[in-house]
């Protein structure tokens, strides 16, 4: 039987603690979390943030209609619940404000080096030499990568896009100087972003064009507001709030978590039924046909919206399904020869999801390059540790649970696990720790095997799939994720003691 690491605080005296310096890369939801948790253990840390404020994806995305389609109370740190959420699903701005507030209240902001992108990390002398774009160099004992998944905009090549006379930008690079009211607006893409944009922009545009390459399944969900009475109850009764979080979690988990990992499950059939029923509400049969996906529901990430179908049926709106041929000065020319004249063109074309810490150059033990290790795609044991990269941990790393889950909760499970590994360093049990090659291989084999049953491989293209067509996600049950991240199985890790630790052992009185 494999042994389970014990909680170190219970078994090792405080005097045995080794002072550690940690680097956290990214000051988004996961980076703020890591900083709070490390500071609670008196571990010194510096947070490196390439932007000028905290919030990560909630700082970068500011597009009209931005809402988190995961319920707000579930998308909240368990140690900093927020009775003030206005509705079931919160706006992007409200979420950004929440993370800013938490970072301030927990004293994290002074630990952050803003506008300083990490460009190089090199493992040497039992720790990491870090270099930033500004030339700052520092040595750290551990590194926690919290750079997010949906971070680097995917900007496809559209022929002659540079000739467009109007304004063009990616959804995650919104240009707030551009006037929208009364304008002819085009949006390329039909993912979660485009669906939210459609609901927000149709009422404002003089004419709205949605350029669809693939129809999406849309799950309706009403964004119920919380009343002042609800909020007062959540403020005065934390138990009631926890009960609500638990209900919100189990509602999603019961249906969605099973549906995605088992394409033959009744849960998936039920999701499909609800989506179809909602689609039936589209009155024009031709529009309904165009909006009907030809693949299984949840194969791509489910779009959650109860306003998208209403918006796309508005007299101002047009769903364009003829492929985009090129961009012209006046607008978008499609393969059927039609020119769709536009003032504003938004690329809601998603993200490059295989970057993680990159483009930073990362070299581990013996000079191995992370780019080479990941030549076939990013991989990490339990999404957390990579063989050959000691004391280097990911939050929401490669193949972590993604989709319609709360990534806040996912990151909380992962940080607690990482802290147990860090405790081994802190209390002098070892100086270096990383997953073994064998555990990494076994995990990957099992993960790829489990992928065969998932809905993600049932015949659609999506950002869940890596370049080999394997889901770049957690392909097991969510329960297994919770279980496996409870505590490290130390036989899956390679540990090394430092020379000074070995000396101390020799010199220790018998
Ligand atoms: O991006 P996407 P997104 N020509 O990758 C199309 C999270 N999120 O920004 O399907 C024409 O889903 C592409 O077409 P196709 C969430 O996890 C969360 O919308 O490949 N079209 C597709 O329609 C989500 O999944 C919230 O045929 C092109 C679209 O662009 C993730 O972010 C809100 C094209 C890209 O869809 C990404 O969502 C918003 C081309 N050359 C986002 N290239 C929450 O509420 C691409 N497309 C939590």
Notes on the structure:
The chain is built from 15 helices and 23 strands. The strands form seven sheets. Strands 3-2-1-7-21 form a five-stranded parallel beta sheet, covered by helices on one side. A five-stranded parallel beta sheet has the order 9-18-10-11-14, with helices on one face. Strands 6-5-4-20 form a four-stranded mixed beta sheet, with no helix packed on it. The chain folds into two domains: 17-152 and 352-507, FAD/NAD(P)-binding domain; 161-225 and 231-347, FAD/NAD(P)-binding domain, CATH 3.50.50.60. It has helices at residues 8-11, 29-40, 57-60, 92-105, 192-201, 228-236, 238-261, 266-279, 285-291, 308-312, 370-373, 407-426, 437-451, 478-484, 499-507; strands at residues 21-25, 44-48, 112-113, 118-124, 127-132, 137-140, 142-145, 152-153, 167-170, 184-188, 207-211, 218-219, 303-304, 317-320, 324-328, 331-334, 339-341, 344-347, 351-352, 361-363, 392-394, 432-435, 493-496. It is globular. It has 510 residues and is of the alpha/beta class. Residues 67-70, 150, 156, 171, 188-194, 196, 213-214, 301, 324, 348-351, 461, 463 line the site of 3-acetylpyridine adenine dinucleotide.
């Amino acid at each position: 039987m494999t042994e389970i690491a014990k909680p170190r605080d219970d078994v090792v005296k405080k005097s045995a603690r080794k002072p550690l310096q940690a680097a956290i890369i990214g000051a988004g939801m996961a980076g703020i979390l890591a900083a709070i948790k490390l500071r609670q253990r008196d571990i010194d840390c510096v947070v490196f943030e390439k932007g000028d404020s905290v919030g990560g994806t909630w700082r970068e995305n500011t597009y009209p209609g931005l809402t988190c389609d995961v319920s707000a109370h579930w998308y909240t740190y368990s140690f900093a619940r927020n009775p003030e959420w206005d509705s079931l699903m919160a706006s992007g701005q409200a979420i950004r404000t929440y993370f800013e507030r938490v970072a301030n209240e927990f004293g994290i902001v002074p630990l952050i080096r803003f506008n300083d992108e990490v460009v190089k990390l090199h493992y040497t002398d039992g720790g990491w030499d870090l270099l930033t774009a500004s030339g700052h160099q520092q040595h750290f004992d551990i590194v926690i990568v919290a750079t997010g998944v949906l971070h680097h905009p995917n900007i496809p090549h559209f022929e002659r896009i540079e000739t467009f006379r109007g304004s063009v930008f990616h959804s995650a690079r919104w240009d707030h100087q551009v006037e929208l009211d009364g304008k002819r607006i085009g949006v390329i893409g039909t993912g979660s972003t485009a669906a939210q944009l459609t609901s927000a922009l149709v009422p404002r545009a003089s004419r709205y064009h949605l350029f669809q390459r693939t129809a999406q399944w849309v799950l309706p969900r009403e964004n119920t507001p919380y009343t002042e009475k609800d909020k007062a109850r959540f403020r005065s009764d934390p138990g009631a709030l926890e009960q609500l979080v638990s209900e919100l979690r189990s509602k999603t988990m019961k249906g969605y978590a099973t549906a995605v990992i088992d394409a033959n499950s009744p849960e998936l059939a039920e999701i499909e039924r609800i989506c179809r029923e909602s689609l039936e509400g589209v009155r024009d049969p031709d529009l309904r046909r165009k909006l009907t996906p030809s693949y299984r529901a949840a194969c791509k990430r489910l779009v959650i919206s109860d306003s998208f179908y209403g918006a796309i049926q508005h007299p101002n709106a047009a769903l364009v399904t003829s492929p985009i041929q090129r961009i012209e000065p006046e607008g978008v020319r499609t393969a059927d020869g039609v020119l769709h004249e536009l003032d504003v063109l938004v690329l809601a074309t998603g993200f490059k999801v295989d970057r993680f810490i990159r483009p930073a150059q990362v070299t581990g033990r013996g000079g191995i390059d992370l780019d080479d290790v990941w030549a076939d795609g990013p991989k990490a044991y339990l999404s957390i540790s990579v063989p050959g990269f000691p004391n280097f941990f990911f939050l929401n790393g490669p193949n972590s649970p993604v989709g319609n889950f709360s990534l806040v909760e996912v990151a909380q499970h992962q940080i607690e696990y990482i802290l147990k590994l860090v405790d081994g360093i802190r209390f002098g049990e070892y100086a270096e720790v990383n997953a073994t090659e064998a555990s990494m291989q076994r995990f990957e084999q099992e993960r790829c095997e489990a992928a065969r049953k998932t809905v993600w491989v049932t015949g659609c293209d999506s950002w869940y799939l890596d370049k080999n067509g394997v889901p770049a996600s957690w392909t097991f049950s969510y329960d297994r994720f919770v279980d496996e991240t409870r505590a490290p199985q130390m036989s899956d890790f390679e540990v090394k003691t430092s020379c000074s630790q070995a000396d101390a052992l020799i010199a220790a009185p018998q």
